[in-house]
Amino acid sequence: MVVAIYLCHEQPDLYIHDASVIDSRPGAVVLSRSAFHPGGGGQVSDIGVLEWSGGCASVTGIETDGDRWWHLLDGDSRPSGDVLLHVDAEHRLRVASLHTASHVLNAFVFAEFAGALVTGAQINGDGTGRMDFDLPEVDNDRVRALEGPVNEVIGRGVDVRAVYVDAGDAAATEGLVRSMSVAPPPTPDGTLRVIDIEGVDRQACGGTHLANTGQSRPIVITKVENKGRHNRRVRFAFAG
Ligand SMILES: [Zn+2]
After folding, report:
1. What spatial distance separates the first Cα and last Cα of the chain, rounded to whole Å?
2. How far is the CA of 80 from the centre of ligand 1 (A)?
3. What is the distance in A from the centroid of ligand 1 to the CA of 39?
4. Residue 138 Cα to ligand 1 middle (Å)
5. Quick check: 88 and 81 in contact, CB under 8 A?
6. How far is the CA of 205 from the centre of ligand 1 (A)?
7. Is 173 helix (H, G, I), strand (E, B) or coil?
8. What is the pLDDT of residues 152-164, one digit of tens each?
9. 72 CA distance to ligand 1 centroid (A)?
10. DSSP for 32-79?
11. E-strand spans in the chain?
């Protein structure tokens, strides 16, 4: 699958824009452009509101069909023509915060437990998430103890940047592509998007992230579970 660089990657602060409907069915539209993140790799999609001359509806998610993104509406309206798309900024911030925190957690797990890889991840819209790691024999309290170092990075306010690197070089750099199952696809020009949390973590990812870790609230590790011999599930949420 080849994916273009998303509009939300190029313009992360674009929350309202116009577009036109290029395809529709009752309760769903494909737009000429969209600042929504379509979700993927365990991250939920953006949500928001669509306005058109005949009304407005909530956009509850995205259903991808190749490079066509169906914006799913509540109700069965079938807008046409010019529309205004609003990204729900609070939802975006919540997901981007937890997602950024998950990179920091991942960095500490990778360093503390000798290159343990990610076997799964889920970042939800309700402020909770989980990551699964290939950790065969580790005391769960040692995993739980990483909450402090993660919050130290959040409190320190570390810059987060997206950079694009050659996909071949990325594959040869240990630790850059860290997921065992889901690696983000390269862009059409053969580059891979890498999220660089300065001095903390560098890994390939196509999701939404903060520009600085200090924009996130602190997190708590709510549960560490054994899910099979090689699978440790770490659940986390915002503190308070
Ligand atoms: Zn990410």
Report:
1. 40
2. 34
3. 11
4. 25
5. no
6. 5
7. coil
8. 999 999 999 999 8
9. 24
10. S-------BTTBPPP-EEEEETTEEEEEEEEEEETTEEEEEESSS---
11. 16-25, 28-31, 48-52, 55-65, 68-73, 82-87, 118-123, 128-134, 160-166, 191-197, 201-204, 219-226, 231-238
Ligand 1: distance of its center to the CA of 57 in Å? 29
**What are the pLDDT digits (tens) for 148-197?**
999 999 999 999 999 988 888 877 777 777 665 445 567 777 888 899 99
According to DSSP H, which parts of 113-189 are helical?
140-144, 147-156, 167-172
How many angstroms separate the alpha carbon of residue 206 from the centre of ligand 1? Answer: 6
Alpha-carbon Rg for the chain, nearest whole angstrom, is 19
Assigned token pair, 104: 């920091």
Question: Which residue type is seen at 141?
Answer: D
pTM of the model: 0.91
Take residue 66 and report the two structure tokens written for it. 């190749």
Between the CA of 159 and the centroid of ligand 1 the distance, in Å, is 14
Q: Distance, CA 122 to ligand 1 centroid (Å)?
A: 11
For ligand 1, the distance from its centroid to the CA atom of residue 200, given in whole angstroms, is 14
CA of 27 to the centre of ligand 1 (A): 30
In the chain, the amino acid numbered 3 is V
Determine the residue type at 181: S
